[in-house]
Every structure is written in C-alpha cells, then in structure tokens.
Amino acid sequence: MELLRLMFNSIMQHTMAVSGVSVILAAVACFCGYKLMKLGIALISGCAGFALGVIIFPYFVTGLSRPLLLLIALNCAALCVIIALKFKALGVFVLAVILGTALMNTITFPQTESWRIISMLIWAVVAVVSGVMAMQYEQKVIIFLSAAAGSAVIVDQVKNYVTLPGGTERSTLVFFAVLLCMGVAVQWLTTKK
Q1: Which residue has the higher pLDDT, 32 or 105?
Q2: Considering the entire predicted model, what is its pTM?
Q3: What's the rounded Cα separation, in Å, for the pair 164 and 73?
Q4: In which domain, by residue range, is 111 found?
C-alpha cells in the first residue's frame, strides 16, 4: 500500500504533465478505442493485478522487501492480463464498465446525502448496462463508449486550462458533442466490420 501511495504522490506533483498525458490518452481512446481494445483490456487488467498484488500480499505475508513485493505484484499483473485476454468476454465487460464509469465521472450531481446515494446507484446501473451491452454488441458499444469517455476527459481537462467561448455549460456540451461525433465517425470508418 505504501508503494502505491508513494507512486501516486510522485505523479500528482506534476499536475500539468498529468493533464497533458490524460488528454493524449483520451484522444487515443476517442479516435482509436475499438482498435486498441485488446491493449486497453491488457492495461486495465494488468493495473488491477498489480494493485491487488501490492495491496493484498502484505496482509498475508509480513516483512516482504519492496523488490520482492514488486515482483509478486508484477506476477499478479501478468496473471490478470492472461486471464482477461483468454476470456475475452470478461475483458470486454470490464473495459465497458470502466469506460461507462469514466463517462459518468464527468457528470456532476448535487452534493447532498440523498444525491450521493442516487448517484452511486446511477453509476452502478450505467456500469453494469455498459458491460452487458458490450458483451452483446461489442463493436458498436465499445466504439461509442470509448469515444464518449475520451471526449469527456478531453473536455474536462481542456476547460481547466482554457476558457471556452459562450456560456460555459453550452460550449462544454457542444465541444463534447463535436468530439463524440468525430470520435465515433473516425472509429466507425476505420474499423473493419
């Protein structure tokens, strides 16, 4: 756990660089999401496996040195990648859940206690529906979700550094819609059916 905290704190000290990398990765997801689906599945499952290795193993075995813990975490990551790619439907489900959740992350709900519960329920429903639909209509759903999540992250990061013309909400929505349409069109036109 300490290793993850140190890595996270080190990365977050460079906010502008993190925002730039976020925009680049979001643009790749927006315009190449379906083509890079296997890579996305591998990255997500690898990160999950690494985090599980770093968090879980110290609870079972005490006194692990950092290099040994890192080796265990890397093996957990590799195992998770193999499982996710071997069982593609599981990987597609998890990828769609994460893309749906990333899209929901851009929606702001009121900060009252009742709205927190409602927003958590909405997030859960969107995540599960995204995953189930992706298993049924893989290409269409992954193209839409990756374009939408990528567009949402780009808009969210850009509006932190640039003042959009017109009303903030309206221009943000228009910017998102344009990016979404462009992302879906590019992916649809460049993907074999």
Answers
A1: 32
A2: 0.74
A3: 43
A4: 2-190
